[in-house]
Each structure stands twice: as C-alpha cells, then as structure tokens.
C-alpha cells in the first residue's frame, strides 16, 4: 500500500499487528466494572451491560503505531469519553485524564486534548474488539501514537497533574506522542564525555542510548549486548562482528549498516529500518522483527540476507510486503 499522506517514517498496512501487551485480561461480564473517579463530582462504577447499553458513535481514522506502521480506514464504535464525563461531572481542578487497565498499563492525556478523539471503544470494523487487541473495552484515538490508547480498559481517572504512563515510565516513550512531530521517545541526557569513553572502550553493553547518533561509525567487534538502542541512528555504521545479543533496537535506523557476522540473537528489531543493510552470515536467532523493514515498499533498496540465520526468530508480525520479501528468500518462519 502507498505510504502517502502518512506521518514521517510510517508504512501503511491493512493488517492490525499485535504489539505491546499481548495477554488478554480475564473478562467476567457479571463482575466487570468501569470506574470513573478522581476529580469528579459523581464517581461511576459501570457494569459492562450498562456501558454497552449507552449510545455509541462511530469514528474513522488511521491508527499510527510507534513501531512505524499505520492502518488507514480503521473504524471504531463506542461511547465518547465526553458522555462518561458528562455523567461524572469533572471538578474545576481536573486537567488530565488517566486511562488504566487491570494489568497495570496506563497512560495520561491532557483533558482538553481528549475532546472529540478519545473513544471508549467496544467495536472495530463492525465487530466486537478481539481480546488480543484490547477487547471487550479499550480506548481508541487517532491523533496520537497508539500507545496512548489502553487495552482492557478498567479505569478513567481525572487528575490535577500529569502522570507518566506505563510505556513512558518503562520504555522511555515520549509523553506527547504526536506522530507528525515524530515524538516516539524522550531522549535521555547523554554525557558526551561518558559516551566517548565507552566508545573508546568498545563497550556499550547494557546502556540506555535511546536516539544516539552513530551514523557511519566504525563499531566493528563492539559489545552492545543488552544495550537499549531504541530509535538509534546507526545508518551506514560498520557493525561487523559486533555483539548485539538481546539489544533493544526498536525503530533503530540501520539502513545500509554492515552487520556481517554480527550477533543479533534475541534482539528486538521491532520497527527497525534495515533497508540496504548487509546481514550476510548474521545470527538473528530468536529475535523479534515485528514491523521491521527489509525492503523499500514497492521495490527498491533491499537488505542482503544470504546466509543469515533466522532460526526461532519471530517474523510473524511483519507487514505484508516485508513478509513476502523474506518468504521469497526462504527465510524460516516467513512461509
């Protein structure tokens, strides 16, 4: 599909890949409640049957996932947040809305930014939302990256102050989450002197280097084992023989990187851009590659994969064209 009209570095897809939390919360319709609390005059505890009986609206738009895929033409139906808050009565001090599941996943948005966008959704595409995608009840919104939507919604809480959500706390995701500004990650404050010392020692293992800029650097034989390299800029880097085992390379830019003989066992390559990268003879065993890009959509720049070992790697979450490209090369798991 064409990627025209999408935010930066996004690919369009008809699929709805499963990313993030994957284990559905147990659901008992008789016991389930949606709690609306915090800075409200009338706290609510709505049984599922009461929520399901409320008037629903339909909202259509494009899901934008932080792992670089976008799904145009998505249609959710559910109860507008405004309808719930109209019953609960926000107090003057309410400035933020926090949404939480029963599994400890949560996110917070400015209350004014929720208007007309946040839906307490019960249906997608005219059918109940599948549990793996957050059903029976989740929040859905289109103006932010989709990690600002919460699967298996159980709580809406109005707050006076902002509170970092689960993905912001644990993975360094950006609190703004604006796809058009590419607010994917909040970058750590990297001490340039410390980075220089680590580069001199050829050891970045276990460190948090979100968004680090190492384009075209000579990183041959470096230890980056377990390093957190989300959104790292590694285009054209020489990583021959480097140890990237267990590294988090989510959304990393590895275009044209030389990874021959590198170790990527157990690495997280979700959303990574590997177009033109040389992975010949590379061990990619048991890695995760959901939504990674190995070939320019529509044909063009391709990763070199001859002799790469993908045994046990999870490539089931690849977008359609990327999966077909790996299948054409006989990569195990892409059949």
Kindly list the characteristics that best describe this protein.
five-stranded mixed β-sheet, 2 domains, 335 residues, single chain, Sulfite Oxidase, Chain A, domain 2, 6 helices, globular, alpha+beta
Tell me what the structure shows:
The protein contains six helices and eleven strands. With 335 residues, the protein is α+β, with helices and mostly antiparallel strands. It has two domains: 11-181, Sulfite Oxidase, Chain A, domain 2; 189-335, E3 ubiquitin-protein ligase SopA (Pectate Lyase C-like, 3 Solenoid). Strands 1, 4, 5, 8, 9 and 10 form a six-stranded mixed beta sheet that branches. It has a five-stranded mixed beta sheet with strand order 3-2-11-6-7. It starts with 10 loop residues before the first strand and ends in a 7-residue tail after the last helix.
User: Termini, distance in Å?
Assistant: 21 Å
The proportion of strand residues reads 15-25%
Elements, N to C (H/E): EEEHEEHEEHEEEEHHH
Shape: globular
Look at the structure and give the CATH class of the largest domain. Alpha Beta
CATH topology of the largest domain: Sulfite Oxidase, Chain A, domain 2
Task: Draw up the topology in text.
Elements: E1 11-12, E2 33-38, E3 44-47, H1 48-53, E4 57-64, E5 69-80, H2 81-88, E6 96-101, E7 106-110, H3 111-114, E8 119-124, E9 127-128, E10 138-140, E11 153-159, H4 166-171, H5 192-201, H6 320-328
Parallel strand pairs: 1-5, 2-11
Antiparallel strand pairs: 2-3, 4-5, 5-8, 6-7, 6-11, 8-9, 8-10
């Amino acid at each position: 599909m064409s990627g025209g009209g999408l935010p930066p570095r996004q690919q369009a897809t008809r699929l709805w890949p499963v990313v993030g939390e994957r284990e559905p919360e147990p659901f008992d319709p008789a016991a389930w409640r949606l709690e609306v609390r915090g800075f409200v005059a009338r706290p609510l505890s709505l049984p599922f049957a009461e929520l399901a009986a409320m008037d629903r609206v339909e909202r259509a738009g494009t899901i934008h996932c932080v792992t670089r895929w976008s799904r145009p033409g998505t249609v959710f139906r559910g109860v507008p947040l405004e309808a719930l808050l109209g019953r609960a009565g926000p107090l003057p001090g309410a400035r933020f809305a926090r949404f939480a599941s029963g599994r400890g996943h949560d996110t917070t948005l400015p209350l004014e930014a929720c208007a007309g966008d946040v839906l307490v959704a019960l249906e997608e595409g005219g059918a109940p939302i599948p549990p793996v995608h957050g059903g029976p009840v989740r929040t859905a919104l289109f103006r932010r990256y989709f990690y600002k939507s919460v699967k298996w919604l159980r709580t809406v809480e109005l707050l006076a102050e902002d509170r970092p959500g689960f993905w912001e706390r644990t993975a360094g995701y950006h609190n703004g989450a604006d796809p058009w500004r590419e607010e994917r990650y909040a970058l750590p404050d990297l001490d340039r002197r410390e980075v220089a010392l680590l580069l001199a020692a050829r050891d970045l293992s276990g460190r948090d280097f979100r968004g680090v800029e190492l384009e075209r650097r000579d990183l041959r034989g470096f230890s980056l084992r377990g390093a957190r390299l989300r959104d790292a800029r590694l285009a054209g880097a020489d990583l021959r023989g480097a140890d990237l085992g267990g590294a988090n390379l989510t959304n990393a830019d590895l275009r044209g990187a030389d990874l021959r003989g590198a170790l990527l066992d157990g690495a997280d390559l979700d959303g990574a851009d590997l177009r033109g990268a040389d992975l010949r003879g590379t061990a990619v065993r048991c890695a995760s590659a959901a939504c990674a890009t190995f070939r320019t959509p529509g044909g063009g720049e391709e990763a070199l994969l001859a002799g790469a070992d993908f045994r046990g790697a999870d490539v089931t979450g690849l977008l359609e064209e990327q999966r077909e490209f790996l299948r054409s090369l006989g990569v195990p798991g892409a059949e």
